[in-house]
């Protein structure tokens, strides 16, 4: 028998309950609930995007990993980053003045000790690089620069070259090449063992090997932990405002922990993927193109006096110190480039599960896949914009701007998308409503309190999950069989109604009363 959608009038197939055009369920349409199939909170995506970019820009010199003739000199910068990371994770106070590339300046300062990193093919060359080619004297002794006395610097060499490097430095001291030092034993004061070997430093500068992966995981640990913390605060804060009991508060905290772990994992994964990608030839080319476009955007903004002020304020927030003019422009361009590259990696990470569900598992539809992709991409892009808008008002506003604009844009774009096509999850929830009605009828649910008590048990056991919704979609995917989907939901939930029915009080009737009811009084 033909039947039609009561909302738009389209003819439906025999087993269709949801209209494929407007999404209306002609039997019941009572559950209205937004749900992301991928389970990722949009506000947390915004935080992950911002934190990952900040971490990469502050703690690595990835743009120099492929420099020098034939790109063979970048391992020195990779060694600086690796040794710096070990010091940071060990709890030391670390500064990186070497990023300014000042002549004979320290690469980093650890707990007040100035360090110069030299990673060459062998110990002889690593030590020789610390001495002037013309005078032959040690380049990093005490210096007077701009009226200030600079400390003597310690030379950091590859971990596997340390013993031989000590011998080479002893020779230099005995040859009188190190001012203020005559005792060869002072070599141990001037040479520091690095945290990585020469080979590891070369591997860290390249993509697709264990050393670079381990380094990237370690470097992204800080951003992942920060992302976890911010996610937990946001989720728990919003949830606790709606709580009415200790049980509700417990559920909110558990949910916030899970969401925080989820967001921290996404931040870690996207950061590692981004760092690996930008080490490749394609990644470097894309980075160069992004940098060029970023310069164009920033230069256009700086055409007005207001624009210059905004760029200066953003650069000052990012750098953590006053920055103006061309220097401010460069800071913002680098930050924008890193954010865009990070956004590409983040979008890839959160899209892979949907690609699997759509094209391999057939557990979500293609419109749902496109919808999720558009929503997530828009959210991340607007979160980046929110970061820079917030940065113009100070460092504390950067994360707030990302969350606010990212969340708002996600809500708006999803509302627009829902007018075009309902979520798969919403359609499946409508079919669950049909199953609930059937179960209520079959188990003779007597009143609203009994029905609510049953649903509370369903909620407590988390019986209705994204996994169930995807299974419902998959089982009826071939011929869009909604009745089969309802049957699956029925089989999943019947037990809860059965428990409710068995909890009803038992009514005992004697044989005499039965006879009286059946045969009447004699």
Write a brief structural summary:
With 522 residues, the protein is mainly alpha-helical.
| Average of per-residue pLDDT values | 82
Helix/strand class: mainly alpha
Shape: elongated
H/E series: EEHHEEEHEEEHHEHHHHHHHHHHHHH
Would you count the extended β strands for me? 9
State the share of residues found in helices, binned by percent: 55-70%
Main sheet strand line-up: 3-4-5-8-9
Tally of alpha and pi helices = 18
Tell me the Rg in angstroms.
32 Å
Count of domains = 3
| Cα distance spanning the termini | 52 Å
Sheet with most strands = 5 strands, mixed
Low-confidence stretches: 26-40
Strand percent estimate? 5-15%
What characteristics describe this protein?
3 domains, two-stranded antiparallel ribbon, 5% strand, 522 residues
Explain what you see.
- The protein contains 18 helices and nine strands.
- The protein has three domains: 3-35 and 423-502, no CATH class; 42-47 and 212-420, no CATH class; 66-205, no CATH class.
- With 522 residues, it is mainly α.
- The protein is elongated, with a radius of gyration of 32 Å.
- Strands 3-4-5-8-9 form a five-stranded mixed sheet, sandwiched between helices. It has a two-stranded antiparallel sheet with strand order 1-2. Strands 6-7 form a two-stranded antiparallel sheet.
- A hairpin with a 2-residue loop joins strand 4 and strand 5 (113-117).
Layout of secondary structure:
Blueprint: E1 3-4, E2 11-12, H1 42-59, H2 75-89, E3 94-95, E4 108-110, E5 113-117, H3 123-128, E6 143-145, E7 148-150, E8 154-157, H4 162-174, H5 187-190, E9 191-193, H6 198-204, H7 210-240, H8 246-277, H9 281-301, H10 305-319, H11 325-359, H12 366-391, H13 396-420, H14 424-442, H15 448-460, H16 466-475, H17 482-502, H18 511-519
Parallel strand pairs: 5-8, 8-9
Antiparallel strand pairs: 1-2, 3-4, 4-5, 6-7
């Amino acid at each position: 028998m033909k039947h039609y959608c009561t909302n738009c009038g389209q003819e439906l197939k025999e087993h269709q309950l949801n209209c494929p055009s407007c999404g209306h369920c002609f039997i019941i349409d009572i559950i209205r609930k937004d749900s992301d199939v991928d389970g990722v909170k949009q506000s947390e995506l915004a935080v992950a995007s911002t934190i990952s970019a900040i971490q990469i820009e502050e703690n690595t010199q990835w743009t120099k990993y492929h420099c020098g003739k034939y790109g063979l000199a970048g391992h020195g910068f990779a060694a600086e980053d690796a040794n710096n990371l070990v010091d940071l994770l060990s709890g030391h106070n670390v500064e990186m003045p070497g990023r300014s590339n000042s002549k004979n300046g320290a690469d980093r300062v650890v707990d007040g000790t100035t360090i110069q990193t030299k990673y060459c093919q062998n110990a002889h060359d690593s030590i020789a690089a610390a001495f002037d080619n013309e005078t032959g004297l040690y380049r990093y002794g005490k210096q007077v620069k701009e009226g200030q006395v600079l400390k003597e610097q310690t030379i950091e060499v590859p971990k596997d070259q340390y013993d031989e490097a000590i011998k080479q430095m002893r020779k230099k001291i005995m040859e009188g090449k190190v001012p203020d030092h005559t005792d060869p034993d002072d070599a141990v004061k001037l040479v520091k063992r690095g945290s990585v070997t020469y080979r590891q430093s070369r591997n860290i500068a390249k993509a697709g090997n264990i050393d670079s992966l381990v380094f990237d995981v370690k470097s992204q640990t800080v951003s992942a932990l920060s992302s976890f913390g911010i996610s937990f605060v946001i989720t728990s804060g919003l949830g606790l405002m709606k709580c009415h009991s200790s049980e509700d508060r417990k559920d909110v905290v558990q949910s916030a922990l899970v969401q925080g772990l989820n967001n921290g994992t996404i931040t870690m994964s996207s950061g590692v993927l981004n760092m690996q990608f930008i080490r490749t030839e394609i990644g470097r080319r894309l980075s160069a193109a992004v940098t060029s476009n970023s310069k164009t955007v920033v230069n256009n903004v700086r055409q007005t006096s207001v624009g210059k002020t905004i760029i200066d304020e953003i650069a000052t927030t990012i750098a953590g110190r006053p920055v103006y003019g061309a220097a401010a422009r460069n800071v913002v361009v680098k930050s924008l480039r890193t954010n865009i590259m990070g956004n590409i990696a983040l979008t890839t990470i959160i899209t892979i599960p949907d690609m699997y569900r759509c094209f391999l598992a057939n557990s979500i539809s293609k419109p749902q896949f496109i919808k999720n992709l558009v929503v997530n991409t828009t959210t991340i892009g607007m979160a980046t914009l929110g970061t820079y808008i917030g940065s113009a008002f100070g460092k504390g506003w950067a994360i707030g701007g990302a969350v606010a604009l990212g969340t708002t844009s996600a809500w708006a774009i999803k509302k627009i998308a829902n007018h075009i096509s309902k979520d798969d999850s919403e359609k499946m929830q409508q079919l669950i409503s049909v199953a609930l009605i059937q179960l209520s009828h079959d188990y003779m649910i007597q009143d609203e309190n009994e029905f609510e008590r049953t649903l509370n048990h369903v909620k407590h056991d988390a019986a209705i999950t994204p996994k169930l919704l995807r299974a419902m979609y998959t089982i009826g995917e071939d011929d869009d069989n909604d009745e089969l989907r309802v049957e699956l939901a029925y089989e999943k939930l019947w037990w809860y109604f059965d428990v409710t029915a068995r909890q009803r009080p038992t009514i005992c009737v004697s044989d005499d009363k039965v006879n009286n009811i059946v045969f009447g009084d004699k």
